[in-house]
Amino acid sequence: MAESYFLTDPRRLLEDWLSAGWRVIAPLLRDDALVPDILHDPDALPRGYTDQQAPGRYRLVPGDSERWFDAVVGPQGWKRWLHPPERKLWSARRGETGFEVTPDTEDWPATIFFGVRPCDLAAIARQAEVFRRAGDPAYTTRLAATRIVAVNCGRSAETCFCASMQTGPGARSAHDLALTEIEGGLLVEIGSKDGTAMLEGRALPTATPAQVQQAALRIEAAATSQPRAMPAKIAKRLQEVPDDPHWEEIASRCLHCANCTAVCPTCFCTDVTDRTSLDGKTAERWQRWDSCFSLDFSFLNGGPVRSSTAARYRQWMTHKLSSWHEQFGSSGCTGCGRCITWCPAGIDLVAEAGALAKGE
Amino acid sequence: MIDPVRIPSALLPRLFRVVENCPELSDVSTLAILPVDGTLDAGRPGQFNMLYAFGVGEIAISISGNPSDNSALLHTIRNVGAVSGALCALREGATLGLRGPFGTPWPLTDQTGRDLLFIAGGLGLAPLRSAILQALAMRSAFRSISLLVGARSPSQILYPAQLADWAGGGALRLSLTVDRAIPGWTGMVGVVTTRLERALEGCDPANVSALVCGPEVMMRHCCLALEDMGVPSSAQWISMERNMKCATGSCGHCQFGPDFVCRDGPVFRWDRIAERLRIREI
Question: Which residues of B touch A270 (CB under 8 A)?
């Protein structure tokens, strides 16, 4: 069994790390939602909240005032830090004999991600695999200089389905420390050598077997409480139903707004654009998030390949739940449920997968 | 504590210079380019490069020159948009950016002893030209080489002088056909699928390897017709086109089912993707 300790207040660890000079990023209160952002003061760590999530609905509401982590995933994962929405790739300047290209670099400070849920741990691993295969070192370079403190879920939102995706609600992917909220404090488990180093200088009491068991029971309860489960054979099934009339039915509700792709912690697609100065002497090459729901996404000379909403929804869902296995060796879905919560039309990915799996 | 890290740049182009801009058709030019510094990677027939026009953008263009000629890299470009227009307008001495080569090549070296059939529709001859030149350079490796070229009209036939050279020298058997004739055209009229039987004359269909490039609908109908005539579906290859941005399999744009056309293609064996091409808007 991994070493585990008991901690009464997570702010003590945050204090240690902030004073040692780490940049700490944690889910903080932003616009009535929990959003990963830079933490400057341990007291800014939200406490006493829970959330209500349903198709097309998210509310952060007061909960048990003693608890830290009852509110689970908010609208943003850790994607915007590791795979930023906008990134300058390089710039170019026109000279006498042509133009010259200057690479763009940035520095990534030593960072701790605090409060990464198991579904998002899996999402980080899956995005890392995409960029590893593409040979783009930026993502993995940031990740290598980042320590990860996971938080196991002792409560699921109604939209969570990580248990059926085998990603949670207990941490299963790589992390340095994992916290589980139990009676009177937190169980701290060490996931790596770096995790051991992160606890240096703070003598935490070893957790009792009862505390370890309590944490396991809470995670188990969070798993069994999830009302949604992805059909087990959905990857294969989606390859068989490209002509199913149900795609048109989904399209009649889908606004192709791209919210699902923006909140999805694994969606990685990007576009590149040039930003050129008015005098035409300098140009910058920018990469920014794109979505397979936009009409321009599949544009070829003559028009878009996927002009109908049905084709674009089919592309998103088939890629996420099926093609991803062939491309990267796992599902592209981690069961975080964000696409369900943040769909303005309340389209439920799991329910649509269920409808398409019918008649199997 | 660990030290801050520097995030490396990505998708950085190399600088190339235009050696020659050769007009081919009213809206098509071939750029011959060389790297400003360093050595040239001529790539393999069927592969493509990402060409960048300063301040405008970057597009995927197939390599269309002789793979064993290191004096310049050739790209034949049709002016259909902002970037292709800017590239076609580059004069001798101008600079452009290049990333590549990327993608899968035509599988020529595996076709020893076979009857090669190249089928080009319109500008589809450009990505095939490298393969044809390679095949001609290793002519004795194949039983025969045929080239079937279809164009909308006689004025739209690409590389007419080179086609005449190839046919005149007897190195390959050439069939030309146009969708619409004009006064003075004495050749064949009709879409390429109507000329397949003739192109296969004297060959055992089971010994034919077909390399097809053109509009998607033309490639699909050609391959289906060749299958009907007995050419094995596993001996046919096509070159797919999709929107490409990164060319490294991470921007997502060129996905075609589970394949990234930039990485798993552009050259695909027909039997691997035939079923997928039937699906609308995939």
Answer: 245-246, 250-252
- Choose the CATH number for B108-239 among 3.40.50.80, 1.20.1530.20, 3.40.50.300, 3.30.870.10: 3.40.50.80
Three-state secondary structure call for residue B140: helix
- A272 Cβ under 8 Å from any chain B Cβ: yes
Model confidence pLDDT, tens digit, residues B53-107:
999 999 999 999 999 998 999 999 999 999 999 999 999 999 999 999 999 999 9
> For an interface test with B, which of A269, A289, A312, A318 has the most B Cβ atoms less than 10 Å from its Cβ?
A269
CB contact under 8 A, A105 and B241: no
Per the document, the length of chain A is: 360
Report ipTM for this prediction.
0.94
* E strand segments, chain A: 4-7, 23-30, 33-39, 49-54, 57-62, 86-95, 98-103, 106-108, 111-116, 146-151, 177-182, 185-190, 270-276, 282-289, 299-300, 303-304
Q: If you average pLDDT over residues B232-240, what whole number do you get? A: 98
Question: What is the Cα–Cα distance from B263 to B250, expressed in whole angstroms?
Answer: 10
Chain B contact present for A330, CB below 8 A:
no
Round the average pLDDT of chain B to a whole number and report it.
96
Residue B255 is which amino acid? Q
Question: What pTM does this model have?
Answer: 0.95
Q: Among residues of chain A, what percentage have pLDDT more than 90?
A: 95
Collect all residues of chain B within an 8 Å Cβ-Cβ radius of residue A322: 258
Nearest CA in chain B to A128: B250
Question: Is any Cβ of chain A less than 8 angstroms from the Cβ of B174?
Answer: no
Report the distance separating Cα B96 and Cα B91, nearest Å: 11
Here the tokens at position B127 are 């990505």
* Three-state secondary-structure class, residue B213: strand
For residue A75, being part of any structural domain is answered with yes
pLDDT at A1 > cutoff 50:
no
Domain B14-102 CATH (choose: 3.10.350.10, 2.40.30.10, 2.60.40.10, 3.40.120.10): 2.40.30.10
